[in-house]
Design a protein that fits this description.
Blueprint (H helix, E strand, L loop, with lengths): L17 E7 L2 E6 L5 E3 L4 H5 L1 H11 L2 H7 L6 H10 L3 E6 L5 H9 L4 E6 L3 H9 L17 E7 L8 H11 E12 L4 H6 L12 E2 L2 H8 L3 E9 L3 H10 L6 H16 L4 H16 L5 E8 L3
Parallel strand pairs: 4-5, 4-6, 6-7
Antiparallel strand pairs: 1-2, 2-3, 3-8, 7-10, 9-10
Helix pairs in contact: 3-11
Length: 303
């Protein structure tokens, strides 16, 4: 028998009063009446405990398509560029590192500049990361003894957490004074959400939190100073497919295959004219705050 779904207060301001935002199959999103944060409530217990991600590890995170795209040279080019601008060297903790691809790319591109450590709730991907030479810390991130890092990264992690503020508090404690924290989450104000709403594949049960620039800023500012904020990434293929399919549920296997496909497009030199147009479109959307993801660079306050 599955445990009962878990009800929770607003992950940003801890208030309970909400207004319904949308319903998609078994997913119920609400908007906080106090701070306007949109979040799933209630949420399945397996997402709160992390059991879902440990079970999904071998089938999704270690699928051939997912690993091929994650370890492709172009996969983390935006994240690496931003990270390098704000942290030129030092100790780096990647929370939710999955198969270790970001840290692998970081160490490969800048040998000797960084001391890396990854952690994740999913066991099998950590085994793979170790096989690629990525140092790993196993166990519950909130319980690990972690101190004196120059940077902590949350690449597409906070949207999956029932209590993201606790993870940010832990990151604050793990950082040196003035250390950097990097956060990437889906953008609730993106063009994709505006155009196709609940048909968008990234409005789905594994995503518990739906941040706007304003709500993410409100959550991080008690502990961090915001150094940079932007919107980034744009996948028109996803918008086209999801519009045509009318919000049909997309399997993990399909997500991995699309990631592999779009990665291959980026690596194909014959598609350079299309890539130039794509990058222009992404820059225009970013300027309007409507690209797919929000990217925040934070500096630790105090401590």
């Amino acid at each position: 028998m599955n445990p009962a779904p878990i009800h929770r207060p607003c992950p940003v301001c801890n208030a309970d009063a909400t207004t319904g935002f949308l319903q998609k199959d078994g997913l119920r999103l609400v908007r906080c009446d106090q701070c306007s944060m949109v979040y799933a409530n209630p949420v399945p217990a397996e997402f709160v405990s992390g059991r879902y991600y440990d079970a999904a590890g071998p089938g999704y995170y270690l699928s051939a398509a997912k690993l091929e795209s994650d370890y492709a040279e172009v996969r983390f080019e935006r994240e690496l560029g931003c990270f390098r601008r704000h942290c030129r060297s030092g100790s780096v903790l990647d929370v939710g590192c999955s198969s270790g691809a970001f840290l692998f790319q970081l160490m490969r591109r800048y040998p000797g500049d960084y001391r890396a450590l990854g952690t994740d709730v999913s066991t099998a991907p950590l085994d793979y990361a170790e096989s690629k030479g990525v140092p790993i810390a196993r166990g519950d991130f909130l319980e690990l003894d972690l101190k004196a890092f120059d940077a902590v990264t949350f690449w597409a992690v906070l949207e999956h957490l029932a209590d993201p503020k606790r993870f940010l508090e832990k990151a604050w404690g793990a950082l040196k004074p003035g250390g950097r924290c990097f956060v990437l989450v889906p953008n609730l104000d993106s063009l994709a959400v505006r155009l196709i709403g609940s048909s968008y594949r990234y409005i789905y049960p594994q995503h518990l939190n739906y941040f706007s620039e304003r709500t993410l800023r409100r959550m991080v500012e008690p502990r961090f100073t915001v150094l940079e904020t932007r919107t980034t990434h744009f996948n028109p293929i996803v918008i086209w497919q999801d519009w045509r399919q009318g919000g049909r549920s997309v399997s993990n296997a399909e997500r991995a295959e699309l990631l592999k496909q779009t990665t291959a497009y980026k690596q194909n030199p014959l598609l350079q004219p299309l890539k130039d147009f794509y990058h222009l479109s992404e820059r225009l959307l970013a300027a309007a705050g409507m690209a797919d993801n929000l990217l925040f660079v934070l500096r630790k306050r105090g401590g």
